[in-house]
């Protein structure tokens, strides 16, 4: 891949130049590394946010490259993930236990520059058969995602270089080139499996203004979750099952689309503690443009301002660009003339201990809303783990979600949602043949302190019930409705 080769050469040249300059310049102190890695447990699939601290400072003059690099910071992450899916009747059930660990290094800063690298490996400790079931012709949907979707038989040799970057730090802002994590409304880590989605990118974060921030850049490659490989942008689409074409039959875009990369940008404005608005734009070259905005308001209703009514509004517009990936519509990712409107709203009540919200999402009638699932999860207010609305049109969903802060260490979430989707046989508006469903979500997180500081646990239980005709067809039932799912996750950061 020319982009990867070009980056490798550029990275090696710049990193060598920086380190040689460190050794040559006398009397220049090295600035210790900050813990610049993005926490591994993030997103709406988790209620826990990792706390990080700065490395100890030093005024010692560097005497060699070796001495300089020893002032950097090592960090580690061990993770275990158990999943169990119970399907209705005689349909197959699935289970899997994955165990993995990773080690990361961030160099100290020198004239604002620093480098970072790290990797993670995974083992399949114990699992049922996750491949194709002879009875239904289907396979595991969730458990296989703990490992490698592209090679379900690989149980031992699962690993990848996750971070490899050159970063420039200026005051509160950064510019990063290479393998890294990116957080946005739809392109994000989607931390619901063993490893997150990562990107190859030039990424900027500008935080010099008090109330206004900017982030954005150019993405030229992906390391999708549930895979152990890195891909160009056009190759990354299709590692997750491709669904059905709007014209009939399985989608044929995998391996047939053309796209040079993804440009995206975000401006967030927060004039006060109670108001924040954010605007995102995604340009996937030759595929689509997608603009998404979100505004959240908290209206205090108590004298101490700790209790508030919360209002939120999200709106998005997507349109195909170029030929949608391929001049042959049957092999394109998106229909060439596709246009989609969507919106989501929230009203809630928040106290220091509880936050309850009633949420609603509407995807307009017409073309399907498409955003590669390999790139991230949708962040609609109605979002609930283990299911998505992407790939549908003429869809409505309502959810009632309550977050509970039992104490500083123990948090919980209770949610219930109902989604109305087009009929499963409506290929033009239901890409993944997902029937209308109801969903119950129970989740809790516990963060340890003291001798076990760095350890956190998460338990997730969901049940999805059938709300529409499934025509007694396994493809419309298994891993989709009339099923329950349990996840148990342990993370240890050090």
Describe the protein's architecture and organization.
The protein has 494 residues and is mainly β. It is built from three helices and 18 strands. It has an 18-stranded antiparallel barrel. A hairpin with a 3-residue loop joins strand 9 and strand 10. The longest helix is centred in the N-terminal third of the chain and has 23 residues.
Topology (elements, then pairings):
Layout: H1 2-24, H2 65-69, E1 73-87, E2 94-106, E3 113-127, E4 158-170, E5 173-180, E6 198-206, E7 212-223, H3 233-236, E8 262-272, E9 275-284, E10 288-300, E11 308-320, E12 339-350, E13 354-363, E14 395-405, E15 410-420, E16 437-447, E17 455-466, E18 483-493
Antiparallel strand pairs: 1-2, 1-18, 2-3, 3-4, 4-5, 5-6, 6-7, 7-8, 8-9, 9-10, 10-11, 11-12, 12-13, 13-14, 14-15, 15-16, 16-17, 17-18
Strand content: 35-45%
Poorly predicted parts: 1-14, 16-29, 35-60
Total strands = 18
- How would you state the average pLDDT, rounded? 90
CATH homologous superfamily designation: Porin
Percent range for helical residues? under 10%
**Secondary-structure element series:** HHEEEEEEEHEEEEEEEEEEE
Shape designation: globular
CATH architecture verdict: Beta Barrel
CATH class assignment: Mainly Beta
CATH-defined fold name: Porin
How far apart are the termini?
A: 35 Å
The main pleated sheet reads as: 18 strands, antiparallel, barrel
| Structural class designation | mainly beta
Number of helices: 3
Radius of gyration: 23 Å
Family: Belongs to the outer membrane porin (Opr) (TC 1.B.25) family.
Organism: Pontibacter mangrovi
Signal peptide: 1-17
Keywords: Signal, Transport
């Amino acid at each position: 891949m020319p982009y990867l080769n070009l980056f490798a050469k550029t990275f090696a040249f710049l990193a060598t130049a920086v380190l040689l300059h460190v050794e040559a310049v006398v009397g220049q102190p090295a600035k210790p590394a900050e813990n610049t890695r993005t926490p591994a447990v993030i997103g709406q699939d988790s209620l826990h946010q990792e706390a990080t601290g700065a490395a100890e400072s030093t005024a010692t003059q560097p005497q060699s490259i070796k001495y300089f690099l020893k002032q950097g910071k090592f960090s580690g992450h061990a993770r275990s993930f158990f999943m169990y899916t119970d399907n209705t009747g005689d349909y197959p059930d699935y289970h899997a236990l994955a165990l993995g660990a990773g080690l990361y290094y961030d160099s100290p800063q020198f004239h604002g520059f620093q480098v970072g690298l790290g990797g993670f490996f995974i083992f399949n400790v114990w699992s049922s058969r996750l491949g194709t079931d002879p009875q239904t012709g289907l396979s595991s949907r969730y458990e296989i995602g703990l490992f490698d979707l592209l090679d379900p038989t690989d149980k031992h040799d699962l690993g990848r270089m996750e971070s490899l970057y050159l970063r420039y730090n200026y005051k509160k802002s950064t510019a990063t080139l290479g393998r890294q994590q990116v957080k946005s409304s739809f392109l994000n880590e989607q931390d619901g499996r063993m490893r997150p989605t990562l990107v190859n990118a030039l990424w900027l974060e500008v935080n010099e203004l008090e109330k206004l921030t900017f982030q954005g850049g150019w993405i030229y490659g992906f390391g999708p979750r549930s895979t152990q490989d890195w891909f160009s942008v056009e190759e990354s689409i299709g590692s997750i099952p491709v669904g059905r074409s709007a014209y009939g039959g399985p989608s044929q875009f995998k391996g047939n689309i053309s796209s040079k990369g993804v440009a995206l940008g975000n401006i967030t404005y927060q004039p006060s503690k109670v108001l924040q608005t954010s605007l995102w734009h995604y340009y996937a070259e030759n595929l689509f443009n997608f603009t998404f905005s979100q505004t959240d308001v908290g209206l205090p209703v108590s004298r101490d301002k700790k209790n508030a009514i919360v209002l939120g509004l999200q709106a998005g517009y997507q349109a195909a660009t170029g030929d949608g990936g391929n001049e042959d519509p049957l092999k394109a990712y998106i229909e060439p003339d596709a246009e989609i409107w969507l919106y989501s709203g929230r009203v809630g009540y928040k106290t220091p201990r509880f936050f309850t919200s009633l949420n609603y999402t509407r995807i307009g009638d017409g073309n399907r809303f498409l955003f590669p699932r390999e790139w991230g999860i949708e962040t609609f207010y109605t979002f609930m783990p283990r299911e998505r609305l992407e790939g549908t049109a003429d869809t409505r969903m309502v959810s009632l979600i309550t977050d509970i802060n039992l104490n500083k260490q123990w948090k919980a979430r209770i949610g219930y949602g109902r989604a109305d989707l087009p009929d499963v046989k409506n290929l033009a508006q239901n890409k993944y043949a997902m029937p209308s469903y109801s969903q119950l979500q129970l989740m809790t997180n516990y963060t340890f302190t003291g001798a076990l500081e760095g350890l956190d646990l998460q338990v997730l239980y969901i049940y999805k019930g059938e709300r529409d005709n499934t025509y007694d067809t396994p493809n419309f039932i298994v891993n989709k409705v009339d099923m329950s799912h349990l996840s148990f996750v342990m993370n240890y950061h050090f």
